[in-house]
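RECORD TYPE: inverse folding
INPUT: structure tokens
STRUCTURE:
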């Protein structure tokens, strides 16, 4: 190790070796910086591995252009020619069965109609640190992206990313407290990145490099502006450079999405997916690491669960997995409520105001 060498080195030869090593390490650092993104597994593990509250957000907004625009959001197609729902059944942990299939009414209700009592209990567990899984992420204050008089939730993710796959459950639960989804779709992270069951905001171009835009979400309080990078789902995690993604977004011709991506570039701190903005809070990764129950009696890993099992766990939460997803949603809800001056009904839950205070949102 370099520090140890500095301690024991006395000869010129060793000093030269140290200098050479320092140069090599500097070059490596420059190369890593130039890559432009980091796989979320590495990025998030370095951010936090323990449950915590307080001290995760900065004290003042960064100096960014204020966006206050009008325009229509993108409503995507309900199905994609050449990308039908996958009907091939594979073994657990190695299947894409049902990908791109719309959720049924019962499944949608889990997201849109979750009981406030679930969020209250999960928030209490977050605050008293009784969750077995890790909840929390780096949060930075930003100017809100206002569209049609409402602040926005902006999301940049990838269908191949396992952390995006896990994180969408908490995102959807949080968004369901401010509006509703008329459609969501069965999804997975890539076969080469743990193949976890997830949901997609829209049918995905699951076998090409591109970006899926838009959702079927509506709210009187907020806008939801998702950007979902696509690559072959049968491979591993991959992510296009920001500049390439922006070119594709600009080809859409949608002013709201083009300006929103300009905003992402302007913030200039993207290091991996998932990357989100919740009103005046920008989150630098998934805000939970939740791939199972993390207990001695834990069932099979998250990657081996079916979508039906996940919906069952969220419909009747009595597991660490479910409580972690609701707690992660609580953090997103608290950020959004702080941006709305607590005007939405969910903001009146006692635990939400407690989280706002604890986190300094």
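DESIGNED SEQUENCE:
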């Amino acid at each position: 190790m370099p520090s140890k060498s500095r301690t024991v080195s006395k000869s010129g030869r060793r000093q030269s070796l140290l200098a050479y090593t320092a140069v090599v390490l500097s070059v490596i650092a420059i190369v890593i910086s130039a890559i432009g993104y980091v796989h979320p597994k590495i990025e998030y593990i370095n951010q936090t591995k323990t449950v915590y509250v307080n001290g995760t957000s900065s004290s003042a907004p960064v100096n960014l252009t204020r966006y206050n625009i009008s325009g229509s959001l993108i409503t995507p197609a309900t199905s994609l020619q050449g990308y039908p729902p996958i009907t091939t059944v594979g073994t657990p942990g190695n299947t894409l069965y049902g990908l791109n299939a719309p959720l049924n009414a019962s499944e949608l209700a889990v997201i849109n109609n979750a009981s406030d009592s679930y969020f209250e209990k999960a928030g209490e567990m977050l605050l008293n640190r009784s969750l077995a899984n890790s909840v929390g992420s780096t949060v930075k204050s930003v100017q809100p992206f206002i569209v049609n008089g409402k602040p926005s939730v902006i999301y940049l993710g990838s269908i191949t990313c396992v952390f995006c796959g896990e994180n969408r459950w908490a995102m959807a639960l949080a968004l369901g407290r401010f509006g509703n989804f008329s459609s969501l779709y069965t999804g997975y992270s890539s076969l080469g990145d743990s193949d976890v069951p997830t949901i997609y905001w829209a049918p995905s171009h699951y076998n090409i490099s591109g970006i899926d835009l838009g959702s079927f979400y509506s709210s009187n309080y907020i806008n939801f502006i998702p950007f979902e990078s696509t690559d072959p789902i049968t491979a591993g995690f991959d992510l296009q450079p920001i500049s390439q993604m922006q070119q594709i977004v600009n080809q859409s011709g949608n002013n709201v999405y083009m300006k929103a991506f300009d905003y992402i570039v302007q913030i200039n701190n993207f290091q991996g997916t998932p990357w989100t903005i919740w009103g005046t809070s920008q989150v630098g990764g998934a805000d939970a690491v939740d791939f199972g129950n993390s207990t001695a009696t834990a069932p099979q890993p998250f990657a081996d669960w079916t979508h039906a099992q996940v919906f069952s766990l969220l419909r009747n939460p009595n597991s660490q997995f479910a409580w972690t997803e609701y707690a992660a949603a609580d953090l997103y809800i608290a950020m959004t409520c702080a941006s709305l001056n607590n005007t939405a009904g969910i903001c009146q839950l006692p635990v939400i105001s407690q989280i706002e205070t604890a986190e300094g949102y």
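NOTES: The longest strand covers residues 223-230.
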